[in-house]
């Protein structure tokens, strides 16, 4: 989990789901700064097992699937790059696609960037339409003022 406190504090929380239950139970938690090594165990085999080495602990993990392990590694690697400035953990025995350019994070980032660009374009277009509407409103206001002044003059001459 990552908080919005300054500076950001990222932690790694291990949870377990027991059979027949839909909820998860928190098992252990470490601060991201304590992570020293991520070991994928075998880069040539899709397996859900992996190890994490922390400052004062070694912990064996099992993801639900090998695919979820890969996703977790990508998110973890990205989070470490973003929030750790000093000691970044070592990723060993991991498949190359985990740290490669084709990660889900890059795809997600591209999607977000695209969405932001589209929203920005829509806002610019809306701003232009509002600007034109303001100009038209100003023209109508001036026209109405001129009409009122003319009507007043006509009435003045009429009442004489």
TrEMBL record:
MF (Gene Ontology): phosphatidylinositol-4,5-bisphosphate binding
A Pfam family matched in the record: Synaptobrevin
Annotated InterPro entries: Sec3-PIP2_bind, V_SNARE_CC
Top-rank lineage group of the source organism: Eukaryota
Alphabetized UniProt keyword annotations: Coiled coil
Gene3D superfamilies: 1.20.5.110, 2.30.29.90
Listed GO CC annotations: exocyst; plasma membrane
Limits of the V-SNARE coiled-coil homology domain: 101-159
Keyword Secreted tagged: no
Listed GO biological process terms: exocytosis; Golgi to plasma membrane transport
Name this polypeptide is given: STXB6 protein
Originating organism: Rhynochetos jubatus
């Amino acid at each position: 989990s990552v908080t919005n406190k300054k500076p950001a504090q990222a932690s790694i929380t291990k949870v377990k789901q027991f059979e027949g239950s839909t909820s998860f139970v928190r098992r252990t938690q470490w601060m991201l700064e304590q992570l020293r090594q991520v070991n994928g165990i075998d880069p040539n085999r899709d397996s859900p097992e992996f190890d994490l080495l922390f400052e004062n602990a070694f912990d064996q993990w099992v993801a639900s699937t090998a695919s979820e392990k890969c996703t977790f590694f990508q998110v973890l690697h990205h989070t470490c790059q973003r929030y750790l400035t000093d000691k970044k953990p070592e990723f060993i025995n991991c498949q190359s696609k985990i740290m490669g350019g084709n990660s889900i994070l890059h795809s997600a980032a591209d999607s977000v960037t695209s969405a932001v660009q589209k929203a920005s374009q829509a806002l610019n277009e809306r701003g232009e339409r509002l600007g034109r509407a303001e100009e038209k409103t100003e023209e109508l206001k001036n026209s109405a003022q001129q009409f009122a002044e003319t009507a007043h003059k006509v009435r003045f001459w009429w009442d004489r």
